[in-house]
Target: TRAP transporter TAXI family solute receptor
Amino acid sequence: MNKSIVIAIILGIIFLTACEKGNEQVAKGAAYSETSLHTTIVGGRVGGAWSVFTEGIAESIRREHEGAIITVEPGGIVENPLTVATGVVPYGLSYAMTSYAAYSGEEPYDQPYEDIRAVSVVIPANYYQFIVASEVPYDSFEEMIELKAPIRLAVDQKGAAGEIITRNILQAYGITYDDIVSWGGSVDYLSGSKTFEMMADNRVDASGDAVSAPSSDIIEASTLMRLKMLELNEQVIERVSEKLGMDTGTINASAYSFLEEDVATVSTPAILIAHKDVPEEEVYQMTEAIYENFDYLRTVHKEFNNLSEDNMMKVGNVPLHPGAERFFREKGMLP
Model:
């Protein structure tokens, strides 16, 4: 079955479920009193990094509120904004760009979901990284296009965040997937680990996705083959950032052994989002718990190392929940 159809079916199921019990779940899932917190956060797939991030946030809240019951449920970057916006669960993790796409009704969502509110940055930056095998005869997007290189490109499943970014970057350079195919290349929708397996077998030339820097998958792949990374030019960074609600970013040369200089790209933070009807005081306390547990979070996963009071409020274009906004203003973190 076409993967775009699969994503559409998944989003449809979530929406239909939400229509039946959305408001009830916001009320039940975010039960708040002066003495306890009882709520649910939807994160990533079981065993993945995002499930670790979500559990770290949940434990931060438990550490600050004795007796708090914080349930962590599996989810996905694209699905979570819809799950939260329709009231299936009160809180979730997603990219800032994906949350804003849901809020504003942009791809892959079919309508605006304006009940989403941002709470806090969780992981400050996920950098778009376009990795190619070192043997390819080009060192930039411009050279690749000029040569009309028959690139064998692997992207994430259609409609996933990484695939949307890749497609928009190519469009900003003036090409499409169809152009790549017309040059004798191919476009395959694959997971990250499968991509690098095929690249090691010389069946894939390039892959792009928004991930941490350094990425464990890329580090592991670099031990099996020689790689290089293509940077984005200034005009493309500006266009893609504006269209998708992303930030400019720089991957430090020290991130990977195969980099000789810094790489310009786009990035998006992972953020905690909430339904707008979650009580203000509860969200205030959730935000405060993250703020008070930076040191603990750094022991959970190295991706938390860059989370600080300087960036936790930089949630992108989704409106802040009043509880989070009040906390940040009281701390002098917002004007």
Observations:
- Confidence is low (pLDDT under 50) at residues 16-24, 27-34.
